[in-house]
Amino acid sequence: MKPWMLAAALCFAPFAAIAADAPSVSLHGTKYSVEFATDDAQREHGLMDRTHMDADHGMLFVFPGDAPRAFWMKNTLIPLDILYFDSARKLVAMQLNALPCKADPCAIYPSGDNAARYVLELNAGTAGKLGLKLGDVLTIDGAPGTVR
């Protein structure tokens, strides 16, 4: 191995380790890198003020217990699919194509009477492309960290 190749490998090795540990979820065999929202402040801010989200990206809201949930799109600038999962990570409700809202009153997107512990937000249309249906299971890889 040439010296410059070794130097390049050593330089980029830390980035490979970070990428391997990056949090992700999988649905129907499709993997999405995610940001975790695990405390009240992170969950409240969510994806507000963002003008774009990559197609292979999402945000996973993690709650300490199961309860019916409701999300709104105040100051969220991109349309989203909002997917509600119970403690067994089974899909219990979907709100598809939740539209951006810049001013009150904003629509509320509930899980109905279905208790949810995890809520996954993906770009609008993703659930349809995957053919998601109630009962589908979410796989979560990586430990919840802070929202980037």
Structure description:
The structure is a single chain. Mean pLDDT is about 85; it is low at about 1-20. Strand 1 and strand 2 form a beta hairpin. The radius of gyration is 17 Å and the shape is globular. It is about 20% helix and about 40% strand. The chain has a seven-stranded mixed sheet. By secondary structure, the chain is of the alpha+beta class. The chain has helices spanning about 5-20, 40-45, 125-130, and strands at about 25, 30-35, 55-70, 80-85, 90-100, 110-125, 140. About 25% of the residues are buried.
Rg, Å, rounded: 17 Å
Distance between the termini: 37 Å
Largest sheet entry: 7 strands, mixed
Q: What overall form do the CA principal axes indicate?
A: globular
Report the count of strand segments. Answer: 7
- Tally of alpha and pi helices: 3
> Which structural class do the helices and strands define?
alpha+beta
Average pLDDT across residues? Answer: 85
Reading the helices and strands in chain order gives: HEEHEEEEHE
Order of strands across the main sheet? 5-4-6-3-2-1-7
Which bin fits the share of residues in helices?
10-25%
**Beta-strand content bin:** 35-45%
Low-pLDDT stretches: 1-20
Question: Mind sketching the topology for me?
Answer:
Layout: H1 3-21, E1 24-27, E2 30-37, H2 40-45, E3 57-72, E4 80-85, E5 91-98, E6 108-123, H3 126-130, E7 139-141
Parallel strand pairs: 2-3
Antiparallel strand pairs: 1-2, 1-7, 3-6, 4-5, 4-6
